[in-house]
């Protein structure tokens, strides 16, 4: 019976772009192996309205040694309204750390996640603590709608994930693969002057290796793959910067790498596909039954590939979509992105941001950037979708790729094809957790056309000298409009992703 089911699921595998599996290690490697960040000290000014409290109350919260959906979390907290985090960096070394002197008071919203306040992973000495794990944070969304043959892998993954993240040695190893410095948080002075409103800060994820804003998630999941004894990693890919970073890291970890791209995306990024092959990856392409060769097709085929090779393959989901616990894994590792922003904003401006803005495709940037700020009702969290790929704006609930979430579909439940100039934005669905945040009104969603994205690309290039990705370019005009709305003295943070090679001629004609 199992073999029959496996044959049924695997009857049509994606097309190999070169017909060979030529996996090799390349001499071209920009992934840095660094030691753990050392503790630094510096003097910090308190944020406006900061509530003075004992530093031990703010940072030394005992946590239970295990994390699961049934475990009782032991936190020492005065109340939800008095939940505290610390955030500071050293201006001299630019090596991030937390400081007991900088205590920021949080005002929480009603319990979005079982009433558990957010406690940062970053520690005063720059190390990472085991994070909170909550698999029930999707409301009516999420779930596991998958063939029975893959349930064993999901159960194993959940067990390994819970054990790993509660193990300090896991985070010590995780830290060795991180950048030696956080990506900068830069004041976009000319963009701010043009907007004539709040200060606009740019979180420069484009300066990550290969420009990937998913680096934190990739590293964490590859460590899990190795702990599970998997020898091959498969990942879906839209913009090639994610595939290139994954291929480079797999070479470092000694894992075979299979990257599945939509056929249209692969042909539009031929030079990047060659780079991924140089880094040792095998490239497969895919199309949907309707003929779309985009990210949706890549995710579907990656799921199928992992089912057909479940004993040896680890599926590294590129975004926070798919069956549980895949969205939780992505959110856990990506949350460090938002924690870095909190740390850097306090050092740069002595306060927290008033608004945080990012483009939303499947939601990988959003779950990382927004997660640490969800309990702060005073901070506006704004996501920007492509106008023809607006699952959060125009979608309805359904089940796709193993999860219940919002998607573009017709009255008969058939998926409607999406379109966006950015491969990362061209998807008909979104991660279940982002859909949940939208449903409870915690995040604001706006849309941008392809023309808006090209205009945003032009603004960043001309005003700040940054060649950004087309995904984050969608959010530039929204960030500027929000800055004008908030007015002078406020602070808006916009995430900037790395450039891709798609549509360069169109961008030059803007």
From TrEMBL:
Keyword Nucleotide-binding tagged: no
Keywords in alphabetical order, please: Amino-acid biosynthesis, Aromatic amino acid biosynthesis, Lyase, Pyridoxal phosphate, Tryptophan biosynthesis
Q: List its EC numbers.
A: 4.2.1.20
Q: Which PANTHER family match?
A: TRYPTOPHAN SYNTHASE, TRYPTOPHAN SYNTHASE-RELATED
Q: Name one Pfam family in it.
A: PALP
What's the protein name?
tryptophan synthase
- Pathway of action: Amino-acid biosynthesis; L-tryptophan biosynthesis; L-tryptophan from chorismate: step 5/5
Q: Which cofactor does it need?
A: pyridoxal 5'-phosphate
- For the Tryptophan synthase beta chain-like PALP domain, which residue ranges apply? 182-498
Q: Which reaction does it catalyse?
A: (1S,2R)-1-C-(indol-3-yl)glycerol 3-phosphate + L-serine = D-glyceraldehyde 3-phosphate + L-tryptophan + H2O
Quote one Gene Ontology molecular function term: tryptophan synthase activity
Q: Which InterPro entries does the UniProt entry name for this protein?
A: Trp_synth_beta/beta-like, TrpB-like_PALP, TrpB-like_PALP_sf
Question: According to its record, what are the GO cellular component terms?
Answer: cytoplasm
Q: Where is the stretch described as Disordered?
A: 36-71
Q: Which residues form a coiled coil?
A: none
Keyword Zinc-finger in record: no
Name the species this protein comes from.
Penicillium argentinense
